[in-house]
Amino acid sequence: MSTPFYNRVQKLRKQYPQSRSAVLPALRLAQEEHGGWLPSEALREVADALDETPAYVVSIASFYDMLNLEPVGRHLVEVCTNLSCALAGAQSVLDGFAGELGVRPGGTTEDGVVTLRAIECAGGCGHAPVVIVDGAYREPVQAKDVSAIVEELRAFD
Amino acid sequence: MSSELVTLTIDDRQVSVPKGTGLVEAAQVARVEIPVFCYEPRLGPPVGACRMCLVEIEGAPKLQAGCTLTAGEGMVVRSAATSAKAAEGQQATLEFILVNHPLDCPVCDKGGECPLQDLTFRYGPGNTRMAFPKLTFDKPIPVSPLIALDRERCILCYRCTRFSDEVAEDGQLVARNRGARTEIATFEDEPYRSPFSGNVVELCPVGALTSSLYRFDARPWDIQNVPTVCTACPVGCNVSATIREGKVRRILSRNHPEVDRGWLCDKGRFTYPHLRANDRITAPLRRIPRGLSEVSWDEALDSAEEMLREAEGAVVTALSGSETMEIAYGLGRLLRAGLGANSAVLPEATSDTLGAFRLPLSAIAEAELVVVVGDDPVVERAPIVDLWLKEARRRGAELVVCSPSGSVQTPPGEAARLCQSLAQQRNPLGRRLRAAERVVLVWSGPGGGGGARVAELAHALGFEEKPGCGAFHLPATPNGRGVALAWSAAGDKDEANPQPIKVLVVSGDEAAADPSVRALAEDSERVIAITMFHQLVAGWADLVLPATACLERDGTSMNLEGRVQRLRRAVPPPCPDELAWISKLGDRLGVDIPAHASRVFADLAEHVFRDLGLDDIGDRAPLPGRKPFEAPAPGTASATAAPPAAEEHFVGALHLQRYRPLFSGPAVERIRELEFQRPPFEVELARRDAERRRIATGDRVLVRSNGTSVELRARVNRKLVEGVARIAEEHAADLHPSVEVVKA
Amino acid sequence: MPSTELFLAGTEDHDLRRLSEYREVGGYAALEKARAMEPQAVMGEITGATLRGRGGAGFPMGRKASLLAKNTGKPTYLVVNADESEPGAFKDRDVMGLTPHRLLEGCLITAHGIESTDVFIYIRGEYLHEYDVLVAALEEARTAALLGDVTIVIHRGAGAYICGEETGLLESLEGSRGQPRPRPPFPPVDGLYGAPTQINNVSTIALVPKILELGAGEFAKIGVPSAPGTAVFSLSGNVARPGNYERPLGTTLRELIYDLGGGVADGRELKAIIPGGSSVPVLTPDEIDTPMDYDSIQAAGSFFGSAAIMVIDDRVCMVQLALRAAQFYMHESCGKCTPCRVGTRWLVQLLTKIEVGEAERRDLDLLDDVCDKMLGKSLCALGDFAVYPVSSYLRKYRSEFEAHLGGAGCPLAGISPIEGIFAPVSQHAGHAEVAHVV
Ligand SMILES: Cc1cc2nc3c(=O)[nH]c(=O)nc-3n(C[C@H](O)[C@H](O)[C@H](O)COP(=O)(O)O)c2cc1C
Ligand code: SF4
Ligand code: FES
After folding, report:
1. Which run of H or of E encompasses B398?
2. At what angle do helices A23-33 and A54-61 cross, to 10 degrees?
3. Residues 6+ apart with CB under 8 A from B187
4. Nearest residue on chain C to A86, judged by CA atoms?
5. What is the pLDDT of residues C235-280, one digit of tens each?
6. What does C199-236 look like in DSSP terms, one character per residue?
7. Are residues B344 and B357 in the same domain?
8. Residues B33 and B68 grouped into a single domain
9. Spatial CA neighbour of C227 closest among C259, C256, C251
């Protein structure tokens, strides 16, 4: 167990009247420290730092879309496929990424570089289709922009 | 709930109920059924999850979940019986519930006693319109060796997870994922390890959580339930033993609202298979040159009589705290009146003084302030008391635990001194104890004169005058008080400590497993042991008489509140019971001891309880009133404090704190499925102590004292007071009170 | 029209993310004014302005505040709902991203009005940029000693639509699974940590400074009497110029879609309008003159919702649209109550069967009936939200549903732009499971 993590969580706890409120920030921190997902040890560390059980922590982590209980690639490409983006051509954008990366939505490239995901409405409907790359919004992204983004990800790796 | 009444109309019937009554309960008063699944008031505030209880409320546009409402003045409520809209809602809910529920009722353990089956039969759709594949999950998975989970049957009422989170507060059983994929789970493959896990089996309204020990054992129409009392600890929870073909198949709660509120611990619930343990003794045994050999009852009684007579009164009796009062009294009459053998090793120190501060356990939940002192966690001594304390805290009580790992970290052995200082006027906590109207004191640990020290404190704080204030002592044995009382009622001669001991009578497994009794046996010429299990006595008893288990006994037992409760024979023992042969031996020694528990009780009651009859006790025993306070013999604080002995004190020494875990003892040891609940091979260390020794959780360490050493796994306990190494009794072997802990 | 710019006023020519520029357009003057007033007087202005909640239900903010329990011995909390996750909605994002100080000023004024010193802003986890903007603005405000004795904690969600529902939000903020609570008790009585809690949407709170600045009387002159003020309307879908437009309430859909949005994209024909985000009943082109305010839109059989207007053109298959919406609600159902958890999955199964052409007429009846059985039975409104699109598309475009039956399949196959779309169906296990709309 890394002491700094424990201490950082103690700081997060102090922001709130009740310590459980710090579970999401703590999970996010743990996810950052563990390469974008939450292996068992990460869940245990969070539990320990919050004086809670690992079972409690997993019950929370599994409720939220942005917390990953399985490994992800070093980069995360999320394509919104909800109504507005769909109407604006999200389908071809997603297909474009799938083709370019050689993975199905939900999968990770064999070299572990990119995970591709279809997601629900990201709140960018006025600039559809929305693609979120490593947490940053790209709006709008058309099918023709896909290969440049993939190239950029590979270059930065 | 106040005494103020509100009047409302349910299905055209007017009822008046106390303000604050839940609508479901109010409907019951009006004899209207509002069906429920998720609603269970013992699990905290209603969650409104299953939607079975939909009702129409005048003025509300939508149907409302009846379980989440409280009765209000002038409310007009319509259940499915008189509202088409509510009926439609109810049918819709049942249809949705059944969409994913498998129709495997014929092979389901819950079949025949299943709320879902019953409600479907009464209100449900006749057929299914769901033509798509139902959600499927992996077949029954063990959530622990004790409990199986069949997720396909789960209707997600969240009763089990609410129990885990809000009653046991163990945080082990949770809901995972979201939406249609929601499922009940533990952390990864870890078992649901909680002293209270079995309660979820009783709470589950369908056959999703079942007992592994009971699975496929019986059908509800060929069983009987016998009401009796659990004697696995001093709480004395009220239970039903389910019997089929003369065997105990399961233990269920029988809800005594003042004692257990319908909860049981796993020790009480799951140890019944020890009745059929492989090494159960069913016939008398006598020592032969190479071990023990079965003898007839006549031979056994001859031997016993002969041994006892030859001893000429130099007999000591070691009693277990789990005997019934009748057995203790019977033995007492036999040995004291029959032989003049008045010496006894009682299971533990007891004191009657707490009778002046008596409260039902349920009063803990109403307390504003609770102070626990003593070295042992409450849960290890009296698990249900732990649940009452948790409930008190949830209801807003302040809970102060002064113990080595409590909220106020206190070194071991300090409890008596602490009581003395709390009694003083200038102690701040003591002042608050004096000022409050609803205070409960609890002594949880060794020492304390069987409650005398905490009674003195209660007296000093003026609790006699306050009906809302009380004190409890958590004994180490289930009926130590009753046994002591019965033994003392059986004769009036004082003890004479015979030297040497010619015969040691060891009554019961607890005594037989007690190292100090074993030590006494070394110094005794002969030993007569009354036990259930061969392994316990194989090496050292000269004559062994088979003992019965509590589930096989009629009789009475006194719990930690001082409540006398009735045990009933659930199954016949595989051997004559104790009173049968005690009575026969009595005949030989010229004492008249009835062979029936009820008659022994009548005799005993005349001596000690004045006007208490078995009928007064009934199925849910009442709590006797308070007695006037009588000052106990003064104790000395230093007698209970155990500072490490100076000569043993080497540098870096820690004080060894042994504790007796709930999951220990001869019965528990015989249940394979309970093994995971037993204390791990570990030593707990305070964070600073561990850091100083560069020890982290998981490290193998050696715990050493002069000459002996044990290898254990270390666990850093941030709550533990410094200077202590905490080890379960069964792993502490022969370690001395002062130990050294180093990395292995 | 400067008088109708309330939220976004000044964003044209100023970088209002910076305190100095916000001050230039009069920022924090309202706070000063409010702090000189008695708390009741502040709430009096808000009540007088009939400020209706912009989060969806349109409940008057002042009335909500009047329900706050008094003398409980507990603190009173102000919680800002910035979880904006309704498909089609992106108004709060601009309010936070462009004028963060306006939100913070609104928080501080409201906190003064309800005598609270603890504010929590629950922002959806995906809005990382807006979070950073807010955090920076908060830091500036703190440095400038604007907070007084108020603490503002900005709390990030982690991807769950249900955390926009007010009690789900509170559960999530308390560190539980974001599953809604039964009501009553309502948050003003028993909210965050069991204490009295005022919850409002970002846009509601961001309007508060303008009310103080203009005075309730002036404010009430904007918009319609039953719902004064402006709203930020989010235009999306098959519209020529999608984006956020701030207009007074009561502006008609026609003005919004045609005058501001430039009409249907690519000159196509209008087929349907979803006026308040995906969870509200659909309107048909002949209802385009409906004014966008709570009461008018409700009279037309839909809801104002989050003022997120989706424009649907004539190529779009309504069954696909219903199915994609149903998938969203199935994915977002929290799983607590039976009708929503089970019903949303059943809807997806039935709609899939219809879309692929395997359904019969009785499946349409069953779909209709499942909608009925779900409606009004669930613990929170998500169950209803899942029903509205499906039941309203089915009612208003029934012939299109019927055209799919008996092996016919999709009449718009090859034309509909959302054909074959992927939707996430599972939020766990690496999000691997996706559904394919055939
Ligand atoms: C499923 C569901 C999702 C919701 N999502 C949001 C949301 O993202 N943002 C929001 O402000 N209100 C949302 N609401 C409405 C809130 O419950 C609540 O009414 C609102 O935050 C109150 O703020 P207001 O009075 O200022 O509108 C949602 C409601 C439901 C039932
Ligand atoms: S396992 Fe049983 S008790 Fe637990 S949620 Fe499912 S049905 Fe309810
Ligand atoms: S019993 Fe009321 S919702 Fe379950």
Report:
1. strand B398-403
2. 90
3. A43, A53, A54, A55, A58, B172, B174
4. C418
5. 999 999 999 999 999 999 999 999 999 999 999 999 999 999 999 9
6. EEEHHHHHHHHHHHHH-HHHHTTSEETTEESEEEEEEE
7. no
8. yes
9. C251
Pocket residues for ligand 2 (CB within 6 Å)?
A: B 154-160, 184, 203-206, 208-209
* CB atoms inside a 10 Å sphere around CB C140: 18
3-state secondary structure of A119: strand
d(CA B113, CA B576): 35
Q: What is the ipTM of this complex?
A: 0.95
Architecture field, domain C318-437: Up-down Bundle (1.20)
Question: Ligand 2 centroid to B156 CA: how many Å?
Answer: 5
Distance CA C175, CA C189 (A): 20
Contacts (Cβ under 8 Å, ≥6 apart) of C114: C39, C43, C65, C68, C76, C78, C198
Token reading at A56: 């409690």
Rounded to whole angstroms, the Cα distance separating A24 from C120 reads: 14
Question: Which residues fall within 8 angstroms of residue B71, CB to CB, at 6 or more apart?
Answer: B6, B8, B17, B19, B20, B21, B22, B23, B25, B26
CATH code of the region A75-155: 3.40.30.10
In DSSP terms, C190 is beta-bridged to none
Contacts of C186 in chain B (CB under 8 A): none
CA pair distance C199, B221, nearest whole angstrom: 54
Q: How far is CA C103 from the centre of its chain?
A: 16
Architecture of domain C19-221: 3-Layer(aba) Sandwich (3.40)
Contact at 8 Å (CB) between C140 and C18? yes
Contacts 24+ apart (CB under 8 A), B647-650: B648/B705, B648/B706, B648/B736, B648/B737, B648/B738, B649/B738, B650/B738, B650/B740
Chain C residues whose CB is inside 8 A of the A66 CB are 125-126, 158-159
B90 touches chain C (CB under 8 A): no
For B529-560, the pLDDT digits (tens) are 999 999 998 889 999 999 999 999 999 999 99
Q: Please tell me the CATH code under which domain A3-61 is placed.
A: 1.10.10
Q: What is the CATH number of domain C232-313?
A: 3.10.20.600
Range of the domain at B71: 5-97
pTM: 0.95
Crossing angle of helices A23-33 and A40-50, rounded to 10°? 140
Ligand 1 neighbourhood includes C110 CB (under 6 angstroms)? no
Going by pLDDT thresholds of 50, 70 and 90, the confidence category of residue B106 is: confident
Q: Is the pLDDT of residue B4 over 50?
A: yes
Amino acid (one-letter) located at B335? L
Could B135 and C345 be called an inter-chain contact, meaning their C-beta atoms sit closer than 8 Å? Answer: yes
Domains identified in chain B, total number = 5
Strand order in the sheet with B141-142: B141-142, B147-149, B209-211
pLDDT digits (tens, 9 = 90+) for C8-65: 889 989 999 999 999 999 999 999 999 999 999 999 999 999 999 999 999 999 999 9
| pLDDT per position as a tens digit, B280-317 | 999 999 999 888 999 999 999 999 999 999 998 899 99
Query: What DSSP line would sit under C304-366, residue for residue?
Result: -TT-EEEEEETT--HHHHHHHHHHHHHHH--S-SHHHHHHHHHHHHHHHHHHTT---HHHHHH
Helix (H) or strand (E) holding B380: helix B378-381
Helix spans in B548-648 (H): 578-589, 597-608, 614-617, 637-640
Q: Where are the domains of chain A?
A: 3-61, 75-155
What sign does the CA torsion over B6, B10, B14, B16 have? negative
Decide if B483 contacts B550 (C-beta within 8 A): no
Q: Which of residues 63-102 of A touch C (CB under 8 A)?
A: 63-72, 81-84, 86-91, 94
| Torsion, CA C327, CA C328, CA C329, CA C334, rounded to 10 | 110
CA distance linking residue C303 with residue C257, whole number of Å? 17
